[in-house]
Design brief:
Elements: E1 2-4, E2 7-9, E3 16-20, H1 29-42, E4 46-51, H2 54-57, H3 80-87, H4 94-104, E5 107-112, H5 115-123, E6 129-131, H6 139-146, E7 152-155, H7 161-173, E8 179-184, H8 199-207, E9 210-215, H9 221-228, E10 233-237, H10 255-272, E11 292-295, E12 310-313, H11 324-327, E13 340-341
Parallel strand pairs: 3-4, 3-10, 4-5, 6-7, 7-8, 8-9, 9-10
Antiparallel strand pairs: 1-2, 11-12, 11-13
């Protein structure tokens, strides 16, 4: 179990839901604060942003590998530098965003993308950190963030088992004791068929830490399913309205969907329960409505039981149906009216 603010993360608690703002503020602080408010109202436990500048991410070039030429990309036709310039959250916005989240009772934190961002966030006293999939092999960054001793969430997108093993060893060696690994597919959007959430319990088994899902699919189905596989943290990109546009809007949740996720993930967690057979306390009153053996015609003492005068019907106050063959051909000791539950004590030879 991991303690994060007033929340506890672990199998004994409902899934911890993170609303990822990313660049959906569309370079408006007012909109960013509205997103915080909407996330809190929807029931998310945390609001996450990203901390970088275009210059800490890449070079100001629009050629070769610095130009996004893949026609399948949401961001095709622009440069990495321009994309990050459009998406980044100005550092002077961080405190107002974090303060608003605190006022509304939800946890606020960020993803640092280099060591200067980690230093900046540490000065703001964030309660935890997230490492993005594309940085999960940046061992110097992971070492710096882990050295704070605060809970560390790492997305596992694209990483091999060997790479994750190295990442986890570095994080723990640098002082991280509260580690959460999120299964992640680094495509935008992701599709259910390439999400492979069966990896979630395997991650827990391999690394002995809390596990969850950073979900880029549309809707809530994949996230809810992940809870059944042991996900204790779910992260989804979040926006006020996809129609407003923005760098991540097309695969982000709207407020009504976030509310649905919180409710349905909570229901999935409640449904896990424990290995259980036999009637639960809630089912005990229903046992009486099972089928059992009843006399279905008026019969006299000494009459023989046949398929015509005894049947397995509801309710369940008579002998179980498994005794039907055993009682057929037996005689009864007393007169019995139609609708009498058949018991062994009424039988003769």
């Amino acid at each position: 179990m991991i303690k994060l603010g007033s929340c506890e993360i672990g199998p004994q608690h409902a899934p911890f839901i993170i609303a990822e703002m990313s660049g959906n503020h569309n370079q408006s602080l007012e909109r960013a604060l509205q997103i915080v408010e909407a996330a809190a109202k929807a029931g998310a436990h945390a609001l996450k942003i990203q901390t970088y500048t275009p210059d800490t991410m890449t070079l100001d070039l629009d050629e070769r590998e610095f130009h996004i030429s893949d026609p399948a990309s949401l961001w095709a036709g622009t440069s990495l530098y321009k994309l990050y310039g459009e998406a980044y959250t100005p550092w002077e916005w961080h405190k107002p965003i974090f303060d608003r989240a605190c006022e509304l009772g939800i946890i606020a934190f960020s993803t640092p993308f280099d060591e200067t961002a980690a230093d900046f966030l540490e000065n703001l006293n964030v309660p935890c950190y997230k490492i993005a999939s594309f940085e999960n092999t940046d061992l110097p960054l992971i070492r710096r963030v882990a050295s704070t001793g605060k809970p560390l969430i790492i997305s596992t997108g694209m990483a091999t088992v060997a790479e994750l093993d190295e990442t986890v060893r570095v994080a723990r060696g640098a002082g991280c004791t509260d580690l959460i690994l999120l299964k992640c597919t680094s495509t935008y959007p992701a599709t259910p068929e390439n999400t492979n959430i069966l990896t979630i319990p395997h991650l827990r088994e391999l690394f002995g830490c809390e596990v969850g899902l950073s979900d880029h699919t549309l809707g809530v189905g994949v996230s809810v399913a992940s809870v059944a596989l042991g996900a204790t943290v779910i992260e989804k990109h979040f926006t006020m309205n996809r129609a407003d546009g923005g760098v991540d809007s097309s695969f982000s949740m709207e407020p009504a969907e976030m509310t649905q996720l919180v409710v349905e993930a909570g229901r999935a967690w409640q449904a896990l329960g424990q290995v259980s057979y036999g009637p639960t306390e809630a089912e005990k009153k229903s046992v009486q409505y099972r089928r059992s053996l009843y006399v279905v015609q008026d019969i006299k003492a000494g009459d023989m039981l046949t398929r015509e005068n005894v049947r397995a019907i509801r309710p369940g106050l008579g002998l179980p149906p498994k005794y039907l063959e055993q009682v057929l051909g037996k005689t009864v000791k007393r007169d019995m009216k139609r609708g009498t539950a058949l018991l062994f004590e009424y039988l003769g030879c």
